[in-house]
Each structure stands twice: as structure tokens, then as C-alpha cells.
Amino acid sequence: MINQSVWDNHYTRDRSRQQFPDENVVRVLRKNFAGKQHAVSLDLGTGSGRHLPLLVQHFEKVVACDFSRESLVIAAGSEVTAAQAALPNLPFAAESFDFVLCWGVLHYLQSADVPRAVSEILRILKPGGQVFLTLRSDSDTHLKAQLRSGDLATGHAELFTKSVAVALFQHFSKTTYGYIARQPLGEEGLVAHHMILAEK
User: Fold this and answer.
1) pLDDT < 70 regions, the chain
2) Structural domain boundaries enclosing 74
């Protein structure tokens, strides 16, 4: 079970409130959703809401979903609908969304819940809809240190090999894979993610 109080506490800290969208999300939205009409998107695990302004530019309706109340307080705005829920059980009807963004979320679930969460994302996507997400790579060393001594110390995270990450999306019609790694300035640890863009 995910510890909600860990994440509520995490989002009370200014340094946890990222403000700018990831460049990979910017690229995918510009390429795949420029000029779309009447499209509906879900920011699943919205966190600080850093991707919401970008999503509002590309979609007619945007839903921000997180299980942290503190997160939704930060992310709340007049242009988005807020929903408090936790994976793998979402309160949305089947085929509700054209696009789901799930950035930096799934690796915090228990391992048994990750395939269920992917199935739930597949369920709520419209035919031809896409999900863009990240999973922490097994080469990541930064998150391990955070879980030992940072503000996520009582939290949980799973690290994934490339083959396991890709296999999670076998029931999607098309999957595109990418990998990002960086070493934060002045730190020893490596932040490494698998990126998956999958189409229903």
C-alpha cells in the first residue's frame, strides 16, 4: 500500500513543487496532439501540476488526478478538473481519455499493482488514445538514496529492467520506447527512466 502521508508531506516542501514541464512531454504533445479538437486528457499522478499548463494548451478538457490531497491543492486551477484517486483503481469510465500522462508514478506502486495499473490505463483510454509515462530504470541510483534518507524515506519504489518495462505494454497496439538518464549537478547518483509511449 502506498503511504499517502509520505506524499502529502512531500508536497508541503517547496523543493518538491516542480514548475516546468519535462521536455519529452512537450515534444510528444506537439507532435501527436497539436491542433486536436475536443480531446480529453488525464494527468495521472499530477504531483505539483507542472504539466497542467501544457496540457491545457493542447486539450479541451484536462483532469488532474492524484491520491495526495496536498498535491491537488497545489495543482488546482479553474482550467482543470481535480480528482482524488489512487492506482490501480480509478473512478473513470471506460474509454474516457484521448491521452493519459503518467509521469514518474508507476514505480512507486507495489510490484503486483503495476500490471493492474497499466491495464486500468488501457481501460480508460479511447480507441487510438495514447499514454506517455516513465518507469524508473534498474540503473537508477538516485532514488535508492532518497528512499533511504530523504523525505520519501518511508516510501516504496520499484526499479525496472527495459524488458520488463516494455512487456507491461504488450496489450497495446503500438509501443515506442525511450530512455533518459542524468546525473544531478554536484551529486553522485544517476536518475534513470524508461519512457514509454503506447497507443491503444
Assistant:
1) 1-19, 78, 145-155
2) 4-199
Give the whole-angstrom CA distance, residue 188 versus residue 200.
Answer: 39
pLDDT of residue 10: 45
The Cα–Cα gap between 86 and 78 comes to 22
* Tens-digit pLDDT profile for residues 151-195: 555 567 889 999 999 999 999 999 999 999 999 888 888 999 999
Nearest to 103 by CA among 173, 14, 41, 187: 41
> Residue 20 to residues 17, 93, 134, 146: CA-CA distances in angstroms?
10, 30, 17, 21
Domain count, the chain: 1
The answer to whether residues 155 and 11 touch, using CB atoms and an 8 Å cutoff, is no
Here the CATH number for the domain that contains residue 122 is 3.40.50.150
Q: Which of 106, 122, 117 is nearest to 158 (CA)?
A: 106
pLDDT at 143: 79
Per-residue b or e along 162-188, where b marks 16 or more CB atoms closer than 10 Å to that residue's CB = eeebbebbeebeebeeeeeeeeeeeee
- The C-alpha angle 97, 85, 145, rounded to 5 degrees, equals 105
